[in-house]
Amino acid sequence: MGKKAGIGIGILGLGVIGNAVARALLARAGALEAVAGCPLQLRKIAEKDRDKVRASKMDPALFTADPAEVVADPDVDIIIEVLGGEHPAKEFIDKALGSGKYVVTSNKEVISKHLPEFAALAKKKGVDILYEASVGGGIPLIAPFKQDLSANAISAIYAIINGTTNYILTRMASEEIDFSTALKQAQKLGYAEPDPTNDIEGIDAAYKLAILATLAFHAEVHPDDVYHEGISRLSSRDFRYAKELGYEIKLLAIAKEQDGSIEVRVHPVFLPDDLLLAKVEGVYNAIQVEGDLVGRVLFYGQGAGPSATSSAVLADVIDVAQRICRGAKLTHTLRLDPSKRIKPIAEIETRYYLRMITVDRPGVLAKISKVMADNDISISSVIQRESDVAHDVAEIVLMTYPAKEQAMQQAMGKISRLDVMQEIANFVRVED
Amino acid sequence: MGKKAGIGIGILGLGVIGNAVARALLARAGALEAVAGCPLQLRKIAEKDRDKVRASKMDPALFTADPAEVVADPDVDIIIEVLGGEHPAKEFIDKALGSGKYVVTSNKEVISKHLPEFAALAKKKGVDILYEASVGGGIPLIAPFKQDLSANAISAIYAIINGTTNYILTRMASEEIDFSTALKQAQKLGYAEPDPTNDIEGIDAAYKLAILATLAFHAEVHPDDVYHEGISRLSSRDFRYAKELGYEIKLLAIAKEQDGSIEVRVHPVFLPDDLLLAKVEGVYNAIQVEGDLVGRVLFYGQGAGPSATSSAVLADVIDVAQRICRGAKLTHTLRLDPSKRIKPIAEIETRYYLRMITVDRPGVLAKISKVMADNDISISSVIQRESDVAHDVAEIVLMTYPAKEQAMQQAMGKISRLDVMQEIANFVRVED
Fold it and tell me: CATH homologous superfamily of domain A142-302?
């Protein structure tokens, strides 16, 4: 078969994902051709690190140290960008689309920050950029929003889209260990990076949520629009109370639309323990979507890992290859409605869990309750155990009815200044 | 806008699904046009029942009593077939595809029995037949196999794809009621039909599994190839033992491929209660798929109902409309590998739960154990409670290690003829 008979593929980056994708392209060439409709030919891989190239044991003629060379290669029709990070991925994607090549990427950061530009450039050049692998590994998540659920008005997304934090929270819940111990275990097992900031602070989840919300609500949602809080404040005491009250604690990515107003936030959540989403354990991901026709659907699977991610990258490659082989035009265009607005976190309304350490004295609860009432917040339940007499402190846990975040923040400000208050040990939002 | 400016749509049948689809097409015309790329125009609905037509309050000019008239209408580009059942749906689909029209259907029976013919005819005529709504209501299930998971070799599907039976089993498990009481409740709530045979005997699930297996394994799987057993034999005692042993009882549709051999079966299953699939309750559906790249993914949602089903029908209509509007060609073709074989149920290997009523006498368990051992079946656990002395009977429950179905059937035959045996009260397969 001549070199131009098939679809030429170039890969930018031979990290774990690039490696898995390259291997799968070579190992299952026959099966991929059957589904794509024409041969998929891996023609070039850009990788600077000579050790990685050697370790891969792939044909050295496939490699170049310079990504620009792959992007410029006239025999390459599809660029698979698996470099990760914003730069220089952004520049290579621009160049690839600008020269009329299709792009497939697993890069959540660059997509969440630049999707509308990329989509506009792709449309102008009659090509496309696909990014199924950028959220939820191999779980089909982008395709449902583009196609399967596209007749629906989507009202809400509740997602566990960071495996590292879900692993840590699962360990904290099941073994009653504290955050730092669980994090160390996750690092030991390779589930958390040496610098875990992006995962544990909810930044990774914010990237992914921005992508999902953009597609679901047809509005440009930038990662900076996403409010995010991490999981490091959670203690084993919070897990004990959650269990007692019938909840699991999860780091949720939440996006909702109501009357043209969008809320997007990532933070720990008390989730009723009978919900399917609450039962998602370990490094698994799950995304629950609510549409006006379909009702509640949930997608579950491995949210990361080279093999699962390569499943999504290859699905996108197949999609593009089918279009090229059969002369089809672009079928999906990114629709964005500029009239939609992002709601600040102060405006959201939800329920709250509040754990406080106070001095052990009569009338403490009355003082706290008064502040809550003054801010229009109703208390749904209270737990107050026997006090720690030796230290003259008591622990009080409150659950509220739905209240505005702003009111809650004001109330907490005042409560923390009460003379009876030692500290507000934690506060966690509650989703029912 | 002139009549020919958009895509013409005809609907065969104004049942609950046809009604929901027609209403959605009319009510969300603007949103559908935005995603499809051109207007979708409902031009004709075939419905014989004048009462249904009147009750719909839709424009009477839309209606005809004769489906053939809709199929023959030159202004109709897409036929939505929601008649249900094999005939005359089969004939109308043939006619529609034969005259170069696209077909979208929610009809599991006709698709499970005739998909390969339909696909061949559609290909010949340069059109397509889409059937996302035929399995799992609005849950995207067909699209993942065609596209999102298409780089994977699929090894297994475990599915709860019948809401009626899952509702009944959920009630039996939570309320310790017997089958007939739970069925009556389901009928009262409209979750089971007056004649529930198709649902409770696993026939409906067998149709759906045949479709999923055909797509997943690229092999023609006919509903007659699917072994099926219903749920009516289950008693509240089985649920009590299941709970005690750490299992839930579900009606599972199972499809596996190994070495070119396919097993497809629908029957009650003991499922470990910590699996996500075991936690799917009520009328909800869930489909777990295992692929060699993606690992284990699960899709969950409402498997039926007019609204959810219309979500899937409209997704297919949008897909077709995008292709027509943008002049794209067919991208998916049904691939079938004739070398694959269907494994008879006798050849499957699994674990078993066996509940027996015996006379209350020493040595009974020894006799049963000997028969099992003679047939190469190892017992993993035994429960024998205090006997019912008044009636001189005992109840013995066995769980086995993996064994061949054939061996198990032979063993049960022999056990049932032991002089100490009153009856084999139930046997249920176990999946781990």
Answer: Dihydrodipicolinate Reductase; domain 2 (3.30.360.10)
The number of residues in chain A equals 432
Reported as a single tens digit per residue, the pLDDT across A17-75 is 999 999 999 999 999 999 998 999 999 999 999 999 999 999 999 999 999 999 999 99
Helix B163-175 to helix B179-188 angle (10° resolution) is 120
Q: Do B315 and A276 touch (CB under 8 A)?
A: no
% residues pLDDT > 70 (chain A): 98
What is the total residue count of chain B? 432
Whether residue B295 and residue A279 make contact (CB cut-off 8 A), yes or no, is no
Q: What is the 3-class SS of chain A, one letter each residue?
A: CCHHHCEEEEEECCCHHHHHHHHHHHHCHHHHHHHHCCCEEEEEEECCCHHHHHHHCCCHHHEECCHHHHHHCCCCCEEEECCCCCCCHHHHHHHHHHCCCEEEECCHHHHHHHHHHHHHHHHHHCCCEECHHHCCCCCCCHHHHHHHCCCCCEEEEEEECCHHHHHHHHHHHHHCCCHHHHHHHHHHCCCCCCCCHHHHCCHHHHHHHHHHHHHHHCCCCCHHHCEECCCCCCCHHHHHHHHHHCEEEEEEEEEEEECCEEEEEEEEEEEECCCCHHHCCCCEEEEEEEECCCEEEEEEEECCCHHHHHHHHHHHHHHHHHHHHCCCCCCCCCCCCCCCEECCHHHCEEEEEEEEEEECCCCHHHHHHHHHHHCCCCEEEEEECCCEHHHCEEEEEEEECCEEHHHHHHHHHHHHCCCCEEEEEEEEEECC
Which amino acid appears at position B343 of this protein?
A: K
* Residue carrying structure tokens 């009250």: A245
Find the residue in B nearest to A143 (Cα): B148
Chain B residues with CB-CB distance to A300 below 8 A: 276, 297-300
Contact criterion met (CB < 8 Å) for A279 and B279: yes
Catalytic status, residue A208: yes
Q: Do A301 and B298 touch (CB under 8 A)?
A: yes
Please tell me the CATH code under which domain B347-430 is placed: 3.30.70.260
Question: What per-residue string of b and e applies to B163-175 under the rule 16 or more CB within 10 Å gives b?
Answer: bbbbbbbbbbbee
Task: List chain A domain ranges.
Answer: 3-138+306-325, 142-302, 348-430
Q: Name A297's bridge partners.
A: A289
Task: Decide if B430 contacts B405 (C-beta within 8 A).
Answer: no
Q: Determine whether domain A348-430 maps to CATH 3.30.70.260.
A: yes
A179 HSE (CA, 13 A, CB side): 13
How is residue A241 written in tokens? Answer: 């109370």
Give the residue from B80, B14, B15, B67 showing the smallest Cα distance to B41.
B80
Model confidence over B173-218: pLDDT tens digits?
Answer: 999 999 999 999 999 999 999 999 999 999 999 999 999 999 999 9
pLDDT at B331 over 80: no
Candidates A158, A311, A320, A335: best to mutate against B (most CBs of B within 10 A) is: A311
Are the beta carbons of A151 and B28 separated by less than 8 Å? yes
pLDDT at residue number B59: 95
Q: How far is CA A111 from CA A200, A213, B4, B332, in A?
A: 21, 12, 39, 27
- Give the nearest chain B residue to A32 (CA atoms): B151
Of A262, A269, A272, which is closest to residue A353 (Cα–Cα)? A269
Q: Return all residues near A377 (Cβ < 8 A) that are at least 6 apart.
A: A352, A400, A401, A403, A407, A408, A411
CA distance A147 to B314: 10
Q: Which residues of A touch B150 (CB under 8 A)?
A: 35, 314-315, 318
Instruction: Identify whether the C-beta of residue B353 lies closer than 8 Å to the C-beta of residue B430.
Output: yes
Catalytic residue among A90, A208, A250, A343: A208
Class of CATH domain B3-138+306-325: alpha beta
